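Bug #77: duplicate submission created two jobs. Keeping one. Sequence:
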Amino acid sequence: MAQTEAVVEKLVAGGRGLARLEGRAVFVPFAVPGERVCLEIQKESKDFLEARITGILEPSVHRQEAPCRLYGLCGGCDLMHIRYPEQLRWKVLLAQEALARTGGLTWPQLEIAAAEPYAYRSRVQLHRDREGRPGFMRRDSGEVIAVSRCPVCVPAVNRLLENPGGDFFASSRKPRLTVFAAGRCLIEGRDKSGSLKIAGRTIRFWVSSFFQSNLLLLPELLRDVTAGLSGRCVLDLYSGVGLFGAFLAESFDQVICLERDAAALRLARGNIPGRGHLFIRSEADSWAARREMPAHLDAVVADPPRSGLSVPVRSWLIAARVPRLVYVSCDIVTLARDLKTLLAGGYELTGLKLYDFNPQTSRLEVVAHLRCAPRK
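Kept job's structure:
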Protein backbone atom coordinates (compact mmCIF):
# COMPACT_ATOMS: atom_id res chain seq x y z
CA MET A 1 0.00 0.00 0.00
CA ALA A 2 1.07 3.61 -0.62
CA GLN A 3 3.05 5.43 2.12
CA THR A 4 2.72 9.15 2.75
CA GLU A 5 2.96 11.87 5.40
CA ALA A 6 0.21 14.09 6.78
CA VAL A 7 -0.75 16.33 9.69
CA VAL A 8 -3.73 15.26 11.79
CA GLU A 9 -6.17 18.18 11.94
CA LYS A 10 -8.75 17.02 14.45
CA LEU A 11 -10.79 14.10 15.78
CA VAL A 12 -14.04 13.04 14.15
CA ALA A 13 -16.88 10.70 15.11
CA GLY A 14 -15.64 7.32 16.26
CA GLY A 15 -12.45 8.82 17.70
CA ARG A 16 -10.51 8.72 14.43
CA GLY A 17 -8.12 11.46 13.38
CA LEU A 18 -8.77 13.50 10.25
CA ALA A 19 -5.98 14.47 7.85
CA ARG A 20 -6.09 15.61 4.23
CA LEU A 21 -4.26 14.48 1.12
CA GLU A 22 -4.78 16.22 -2.21
CA GLY A 23 -8.13 17.55 -1.06
CA ARG A 24 -9.45 14.22 0.17
CA ALA A 25 -10.21 13.39 3.79
CA VAL A 26 -8.05 10.70 5.38
CA PHE A 27 -9.41 8.89 8.45
CA VAL A 28 -6.69 7.69 10.81
CA PRO A 29 -7.35 5.59 13.94
CA PHE A 30 -5.22 6.16 17.07
CA ALA A 31 -4.06 9.64 16.00
CA VAL A 32 -3.82 12.82 18.08
CA PRO A 33 -4.65 16.23 16.55
CA GLY A 34 -1.55 18.24 15.67
CA GLU A 35 0.69 15.26 15.00
CA ARG A 36 2.70 14.77 11.83
CA VAL A 37 2.49 11.09 10.98
CA CYS A 38 3.58 8.55 8.39
CA LEU A 39 0.57 6.79 6.92
CA GLU A 40 -0.12 3.67 4.94
CA ILE A 41 -3.25 4.02 2.83
CA GLN A 42 -5.42 0.96 3.37
CA LYS A 43 -8.67 1.85 1.64
CA GLU A 44 -9.37 4.34 -1.10
CA SER A 45 -12.66 5.72 -2.38
CA LYS A 46 -13.68 8.71 -4.46
CA ASP A 47 -14.21 11.06 -1.52
CA PHE A 48 -12.01 9.75 1.29
CA LEU A 49 -9.16 7.48 2.30
CA GLU A 50 -8.58 5.24 5.29
CA ALA A 51 -5.07 4.81 6.62
CA ARG A 52 -3.04 3.46 9.53
CA ILE A 53 -0.12 5.10 11.29
CA THR A 54 3.27 3.54 10.48
CA GLY A 55 5.33 6.20 12.27
CA ILE A 56 4.95 9.39 14.28
CA LEU A 57 7.27 12.15 13.09
CA GLU A 58 6.05 14.88 15.47
CA PRO A 59 4.10 13.43 18.42
CA SER A 60 1.55 15.47 20.35
CA VAL A 61 2.20 16.41 23.97
CA HIS A 62 -1.20 14.88 24.63
CA ARG A 63 -0.17 11.41 23.48
CA GLN A 64 0.40 8.76 26.12
CA GLU A 65 1.39 5.10 26.27
CA ALA A 66 -1.86 3.15 26.59
CA PRO A 67 -1.94 1.17 29.86
CA CYS A 68 -3.30 -1.92 28.09
CA ARG A 69 -1.33 -4.50 26.13
CA LEU A 70 -4.36 -5.22 23.95
CA TYR A 71 -5.06 -1.61 22.99
CA GLY A 72 -5.44 -1.36 19.24
CA LEU A 73 -6.33 -5.04 18.97
CA CYS A 74 -9.39 -5.09 21.25
CA GLY A 75 -12.43 -3.37 19.79
CA GLY A 76 -13.45 -1.63 23.03
CA CYS A 77 -11.36 1.50 23.54
CA ASP A 78 -10.33 3.98 20.86
CA LEU A 79 -8.97 7.01 22.79
CA MET A 80 -6.63 5.40 25.33
CA HIS A 81 -3.59 6.84 23.52
CA ILE A 82 -4.76 10.39 24.47
CA ARG A 83 -4.34 11.86 27.96
CA TYR A 84 -7.67 12.07 29.72
CA PRO A 85 -8.09 15.88 30.01
CA GLU A 86 -7.56 16.12 26.26
CA GLN A 87 -10.09 13.34 25.65
CA LEU A 88 -12.68 15.39 27.53
CA ARG A 89 -11.82 18.56 25.60
CA TRP A 90 -12.28 16.80 22.28
CA LYS A 91 -15.52 15.16 23.34
CA VAL A 92 -16.97 18.61 24.01
CA LEU A 93 -15.74 19.85 20.63
CA LEU A 94 -17.16 16.82 18.81
CA ALA A 95 -20.52 17.25 20.55
CA GLN A 96 -20.64 20.94 19.63
CA GLU A 97 -19.80 20.12 16.02
CA ALA A 98 -22.54 17.47 15.83
CA LEU A 99 -25.10 19.83 17.36
CA ALA A 100 -24.21 22.53 14.83
CA ARG A 101 -23.98 20.32 11.76
CA THR A 102 -27.03 18.12 12.35
CA GLY A 103 -29.22 20.28 14.53
CA GLY A 104 -28.20 23.83 13.59
CA LEU A 105 -27.62 24.43 17.32
CA THR A 106 -24.95 26.51 19.03
CA TRP A 107 -24.17 25.75 22.68
CA PRO A 108 -20.83 27.41 23.56
CA GLN A 109 -20.68 26.60 27.28
CA LEU A 110 -21.12 22.83 27.12
CA GLU A 111 -20.29 21.12 30.42
CA ILE A 112 -19.00 17.57 30.64
CA ALA A 113 -19.25 15.50 33.81
CA ALA A 114 -16.54 12.94 34.49
CA ALA A 115 -15.51 10.59 37.28
CA GLU A 116 -12.68 8.03 37.08
CA PRO A 117 -10.92 7.45 33.74
CA TYR A 118 -10.12 3.81 34.62
CA ALA A 119 -11.65 1.01 36.73
CA TYR A 120 -15.17 2.34 36.16
CA ARG A 121 -16.92 -0.33 34.12
CA SER A 122 -19.14 -2.69 36.13
CA ARG A 123 -20.94 -4.35 33.23
CA VAL A 124 -19.19 -6.15 30.36
CA GLN A 125 -20.09 -8.65 27.67
CA LEU A 126 -17.60 -11.50 27.46
CA HIS A 127 -17.24 -13.68 24.38
CA ARG A 128 -15.96 -17.26 24.13
CA ASP A 129 -12.65 -17.67 22.29
CA ARG A 130 -11.64 -20.86 20.44
CA GLU A 131 -10.30 -22.42 23.65
CA GLY A 132 -13.39 -21.56 25.69
CA ARG A 133 -11.80 -18.62 27.52
CA PRO A 134 -13.66 -15.31 28.09
CA GLY A 135 -12.53 -12.33 26.06
CA PHE A 136 -13.46 -9.34 23.92
CA MET A 137 -13.96 -8.97 20.19
CA ARG A 138 -10.91 -8.08 18.10
CA ARG A 139 -11.17 -4.74 16.32
CA ASP A 140 -12.73 -5.00 12.85
CA SER A 141 -12.93 -8.76 13.13
CA GLY A 142 -15.15 -11.62 14.26
CA GLU A 143 -12.28 -13.09 16.27
CA VAL A 144 -12.27 -13.16 20.07
CA ILE A 145 -9.19 -12.15 22.10
CA ALA A 146 -8.79 -13.81 25.51
CA VAL A 147 -8.52 -11.16 28.25
CA SER A 148 -7.09 -11.59 31.76
CA ARG A 149 -7.23 -7.91 32.76
CA CYS A 150 -8.96 -4.77 31.48
CA PRO A 151 -7.94 -1.31 32.79
CA VAL A 152 -11.44 0.14 32.42
CA CYS A 153 -13.16 -2.67 34.36
CA VAL A 154 -13.80 -2.53 38.09
CA PRO A 155 -11.62 -4.78 40.31
CA ALA A 156 -14.34 -7.43 40.76
CA VAL A 157 -14.58 -7.96 36.99
CA ASN A 158 -10.78 -8.15 36.69
CA ARG A 159 -10.62 -10.78 39.43
CA LEU A 160 -13.08 -12.84 37.42
CA LEU A 161 -11.06 -12.33 34.23
CA GLU A 162 -7.87 -13.42 36.00
CA ASN A 163 -9.53 -16.59 37.30
CA PRO A 164 -12.75 -17.42 35.41
CA GLY A 165 -12.65 -20.97 36.73
CA GLY A 166 -13.58 -24.19 34.91
CA ASP A 167 -15.87 -23.81 31.93
CA PHE A 168 -16.89 -20.17 32.31
CA PHE A 169 -19.64 -20.56 29.70
CA ALA A 170 -21.14 -23.72 31.22
CA SER A 171 -24.16 -21.80 32.57
CA SER A 172 -25.32 -20.91 29.07
CA ARG A 173 -25.06 -22.15 25.50
CA LYS A 174 -24.65 -18.60 24.27
CA PRO A 175 -21.21 -17.63 22.92
CA ARG A 176 -21.51 -14.29 24.74
CA LEU A 177 -22.38 -13.63 28.38
CA THR A 178 -23.04 -10.45 30.34
CA VAL A 179 -21.18 -10.00 33.62
CA PHE A 180 -22.21 -7.36 36.16
CA ALA A 181 -20.25 -6.51 39.28
CA ALA A 182 -22.86 -5.80 41.96
CA GLY A 183 -21.00 -6.67 45.15
CA ARG A 184 -20.08 -10.02 43.61
CA CYS A 185 -19.94 -10.72 39.90
CA LEU A 186 -23.31 -11.73 38.50
CA ILE A 187 -23.04 -13.94 35.41
CA GLU A 188 -25.78 -14.27 32.80
CA GLY A 189 -27.19 -17.78 32.82
CA ARG A 190 -26.03 -18.51 36.34
CA ASP A 191 -27.66 -15.40 37.83
CA LYS A 192 -31.01 -14.14 36.60
CA SER A 193 -31.28 -10.80 38.39
CA GLY A 194 -29.40 -8.55 40.77
CA SER A 195 -29.85 -5.39 42.78
CA LEU A 196 -27.86 -2.23 43.35
CA LYS A 197 -28.00 0.59 45.86
CA ILE A 198 -28.02 3.76 43.76
CA ALA A 199 -28.31 7.20 45.36
CA GLY A 200 -29.92 5.64 48.43
CA ARG A 201 -32.48 3.53 46.57
CA THR A 202 -32.35 -0.21 45.78
CA ILE A 203 -32.88 -0.99 42.09
CA ARG A 204 -33.37 -4.51 40.75
CA PHE A 205 -32.33 -5.38 37.21
CA TRP A 206 -32.00 -8.37 34.91
CA VAL A 207 -28.39 -9.46 34.41
CA SER A 208 -28.99 -10.22 30.71
CA SER A 209 -30.58 -6.84 29.93
CA PHE A 210 -29.03 -3.43 29.48
CA PHE A 211 -28.15 -1.42 32.56
CA GLN A 212 -25.78 1.51 32.82
CA SER A 213 -22.22 0.22 33.34
CA ASN A 214 -20.64 3.29 34.98
CA LEU A 215 -22.07 3.32 38.49
CA LEU A 216 -19.65 6.05 39.62
CA LEU A 217 -21.24 8.71 37.41
CA LEU A 218 -24.81 7.41 37.49
CA PRO A 219 -25.92 9.31 40.65
CA GLU A 220 -24.99 12.65 39.05
CA LEU A 221 -26.95 11.77 35.92
CA LEU A 222 -29.99 10.84 38.02
CA ARG A 223 -29.82 14.12 39.97
CA ASP A 224 -29.55 16.15 36.78
CA VAL A 225 -32.36 14.31 34.97
CA THR A 226 -34.85 14.74 37.81
CA ALA A 227 -33.76 18.22 39.00
CA GLY A 228 -36.61 20.74 39.05
CA LEU A 229 -39.24 18.24 37.90
CA SER A 230 -42.44 17.88 39.93
CA GLY A 231 -46.20 17.71 39.50
CA ARG A 232 -49.08 15.34 39.23
CA CYS A 233 -48.02 13.04 36.37
CA VAL A 234 -44.77 12.19 34.56
CA LEU A 235 -44.19 9.81 31.65
CA ASP A 236 -41.06 7.64 31.83
CA LEU A 237 -40.68 6.85 28.12
CA TYR A 238 -38.54 3.76 27.33
CA SER A 239 -38.56 3.15 31.07
CA GLY A 240 -36.71 -0.16 31.27
CA VAL A 241 -36.73 -1.37 34.88
CA GLY A 242 -37.87 2.05 36.08
CA LEU A 243 -34.52 3.56 37.09
CA PHE A 244 -35.61 7.14 36.39
CA GLY A 245 -39.17 6.43 37.51
CA ALA A 246 -37.94 5.30 40.93
CA PHE A 247 -36.56 8.78 41.59
CA LEU A 248 -39.31 10.67 39.75
CA ALA A 249 -41.84 9.08 42.13
CA GLU A 250 -40.42 11.29 44.89
CA SER A 251 -41.80 14.43 43.23
CA PHE A 252 -44.78 13.22 41.16
CA ASP A 253 -48.10 11.74 42.27
CA GLN A 254 -48.10 9.33 39.35
CA VAL A 255 -45.36 7.82 37.18
CA ILE A 256 -46.38 6.26 33.87
CA CYS A 257 -43.81 3.73 32.64
CA LEU A 258 -43.92 2.90 28.94
CA GLU A 259 -41.72 -0.05 27.98
CA ARG A 260 -41.95 -2.82 25.36
CA ASP A 261 -40.16 -5.45 27.51
CA ALA A 262 -42.60 -7.20 29.83
CA ALA A 263 -39.79 -8.54 32.05
CA ALA A 264 -38.38 -5.04 32.56
CA LEU A 265 -41.84 -3.73 33.48
CA ARG A 266 -42.20 -6.45 36.12
CA LEU A 267 -39.12 -5.12 37.88
CA ALA A 268 -40.24 -1.51 37.38
CA ARG A 269 -43.34 -2.26 39.45
CA GLY A 270 -41.12 -3.15 42.39
CA ASN A 271 -38.50 -0.47 41.81
CA ILE A 272 -40.93 2.47 41.80
CA PRO A 273 -42.23 3.25 45.31
CA GLY A 274 -45.81 4.15 46.13
CA ARG A 275 -49.17 3.35 44.58
CA GLY A 276 -51.22 4.59 41.67
CA HIS A 277 -48.48 4.34 39.06
CA LEU A 278 -49.23 3.03 35.58
CA PHE A 279 -47.19 0.44 33.68
CA ILE A 280 -47.83 0.16 29.94
CA ARG A 281 -46.27 -2.54 27.80
CA SER A 282 -46.03 -1.16 24.28
CA GLU A 283 -43.67 -0.15 21.53
CA ALA A 284 -43.21 3.60 21.79
CA ASP A 285 -43.96 4.07 18.08
CA SER A 286 -47.33 2.34 18.11
CA TRP A 287 -48.32 3.99 21.40
CA ALA A 288 -47.42 7.44 20.06
CA ALA A 289 -49.24 6.80 16.79
CA ARG A 290 -52.43 6.04 18.74
CA ARG A 291 -52.05 9.39 20.57
CA GLU A 292 -53.02 7.82 23.88
CA MET A 293 -52.12 10.88 25.92
CA PRO A 294 -52.87 11.11 29.63
CA ALA A 295 -55.37 13.82 30.50
CA HIS A 296 -52.68 15.78 32.32
CA LEU A 297 -48.95 15.36 31.84
CA ASP A 298 -46.45 17.65 33.58
CA ALA A 299 -43.25 16.12 32.23
CA VAL A 300 -41.72 13.43 30.04
CA VAL A 301 -38.35 11.76 30.60
CA ALA A 302 -37.29 9.95 27.42
CA ASP A 303 -34.30 7.59 27.23
CA PRO A 304 -34.51 6.11 23.72
CA PRO A 305 -32.10 3.67 22.05
CA ARG A 306 -29.16 4.91 19.98
CA SER A 307 -31.45 5.47 17.00
CA GLY A 308 -33.18 8.27 18.94
CA LEU A 309 -36.83 9.29 18.88
CA SER A 310 -38.82 7.96 15.94
CA VAL A 311 -40.98 10.20 13.75
CA PRO A 312 -44.22 9.09 15.51
CA VAL A 313 -42.76 9.84 18.95
CA ARG A 314 -41.47 13.25 17.89
CA SER A 315 -44.84 14.04 16.34
CA TRP A 316 -46.61 12.99 19.54
CA LEU A 317 -44.35 15.16 21.71
CA ILE A 318 -44.97 18.18 19.48
CA ALA A 319 -48.73 17.59 19.57
CA ALA A 320 -48.71 17.02 23.34
CA ARG A 321 -46.65 20.17 24.09
CA VAL A 322 -45.51 18.74 27.41
CA PRO A 323 -44.38 21.55 29.78
CA ARG A 324 -41.08 19.79 30.61
CA LEU A 325 -39.15 17.28 28.52
CA VAL A 326 -35.87 15.66 29.56
CA TYR A 327 -34.14 13.75 26.77
CA VAL A 328 -31.39 11.29 27.75
CA SER A 329 -29.31 10.28 24.75
CA CYS A 330 -26.39 7.96 24.02
CA ASP A 331 -25.87 9.39 20.52
CA ILE A 332 -25.23 13.10 20.04
CA VAL A 333 -26.05 12.98 16.30
CA THR A 334 -29.54 11.50 16.68
CA LEU A 335 -30.12 13.84 19.64
CA ALA A 336 -29.20 16.84 17.46
CA ARG A 337 -31.56 15.61 14.72
CA ASP A 338 -34.42 15.21 17.19
CA LEU A 339 -33.77 18.55 18.90
CA LYS A 340 -33.99 20.31 15.54
CA THR A 341 -37.49 18.86 15.03
CA LEU A 342 -38.64 19.51 18.60
CA LEU A 343 -37.41 23.12 18.61
CA ALA A 344 -39.18 23.76 15.30
CA GLY A 345 -42.32 22.28 16.89
CA GLY A 346 -42.47 24.70 19.80
CA TYR A 347 -40.01 23.42 22.39
CA GLU A 348 -37.20 25.54 23.88
CA LEU A 349 -33.83 24.07 24.85
CA THR A 350 -32.99 25.20 28.40
CA GLY A 351 -30.12 22.91 29.37
CA LEU A 352 -27.56 20.58 27.84
CA LYS A 353 -24.86 18.52 29.57
CA LEU A 354 -22.46 15.75 28.58
CA TYR A 355 -21.52 12.73 30.70
CA ASP A 356 -18.36 10.73 30.09
CA PHE A 357 -19.78 7.35 31.01
CA ASN A 358 -17.21 5.56 28.84
CA PRO A 359 -13.72 7.08 29.28
CA GLN A 360 -11.06 5.87 26.82
CA THR A 361 -13.79 5.57 24.17
CA SER A 362 -15.44 8.11 21.89
CA ARG A 363 -18.93 7.41 23.29
CA LEU A 364 -20.96 9.96 25.27
CA GLU A 365 -24.19 10.31 27.21
CA VAL A 366 -26.09 13.59 26.88
CA VAL A 367 -29.02 15.09 28.81
CA ALA A 368 -31.13 17.83 27.24
CA HIS A 369 -33.77 19.79 29.16
CA LEU A 370 -36.59 21.37 27.18
CA ARG A 371 -39.68 23.45 27.94
CA CYS A 372 -42.83 23.99 25.95
CA ALA A 373 -45.55 26.58 26.48
CA PRO A 374 -49.15 25.36 26.13
CA ARG A 375 -51.13 26.30 23.04
CA LYS A 376 -53.17 29.49 23.44
